User: What shape does this take?
Amino acid sequence: MAKNDPYAALRYKEFNIFLLVRFALVFGWSMQFIVIEWEVYSLTKDPLALGIIGLMEIIPAFTMALFAGHIVDQNEKRNLLAKCIAAFSLISLGLFLLTWDRVVSNWSTNAILYGIYALVFFGGFLRSFFGPTIFSLIALIVPKKVYPNAATWSTSTWKAAGVLGALFGGFFIHWIGVDKTLCIIFILVVISLLLTFKIKPKPILNPKIGESVKESLKVGVKFVFSNKAILGALTLDMIAVLFGGAVALLSVFAQDILHVGSKGFGILNASISLGSIVSMFLTTYIPISRNAGIKLLVSVFVFGLCIIAFGMSSIFWVSVVALFLSGAADGISMVIRQTILQLKTPDNMRGRVSSVNSMFVGSSNELGAFESGLTAKLMGPATAVVFGGVMTLITVVGIGIKNPVIRTLDLTKDYEDHEREEA
Assistant: This one.
């Protein structure tokens, strides 16, 4: 197989099925996120309520992350993914029932709001298992020599599903209403569950089955904090996502600043993911392994600039372009980070390393949402977004100066070593 074959991972049947599963799941999940944000802000007209959504998800996701990684490394990955999807379908069904007019016509606003928060909380618990399971399963479906290409396609599929989910989420709210949109999401999750069973169960590569939770977690955390490349990349992305999280305030911008309604709300959300898709598709043809650290720093810096531009804009299409470019920069950052994790993580520790990644980066999305909601409450939404962008730039400059490992990071040798292993 050619070294630079942009379709290397797609030549494996089970990987294609995996991409279909991930697409259906993320498409539904992305729509659900959009619908929840829209419904909560429509009920409360309070940006802090949007921040609470993030807080409700981050508490269980963060506290359960390391334990979830231990469970993933100790169990078969295909069946574990199926169980996670089945549980997620219950959340989707619950949200549909919570917003169905026939069911909640006599319910108070607070009852609906607290019900949504409760289901989001359960989703955060569940999400702590999703990331490590998916990350580990990819490495069992394709050989090591195509890990970088598989990471790019998997992340691109995730973003493609995100852009379409965000776009159709906004449109479906306008076309058929919140409750019927959530019913469609439930159906999509069930479809992803059925597709999962077309992937064969995989062997458990962890030689320490039955290892105590305490020892297992200790080894996983120690590995991440001793690997400067992984630790540096995760830290950079965590801080950038924490302070650059304008996404949580898009419903505020759509309704109160840009005045574009649910259609514009969907376009704003979709523009971010569309930018990521374009940049990640390009990385399948233009490898990012050489000088990966510099590329990571530059991409996050550009992301911060775009967030500032979005916060300062009061023109819809200028805002769309700023978000598109921020998504493109973020897409490159994600591909580099996922490639670092895939190339530098041993097979028997993928669940735990991915869990630490979720604590650093995944949870920072929700914490960033809370930070955005809180700062928007204190200083106004536009100022809050600009503040976050400025903090992102300061973080990139600081890490670039203080962390020489990131500045000099090059993945070419790691890629070539995996090529030789497969030869």
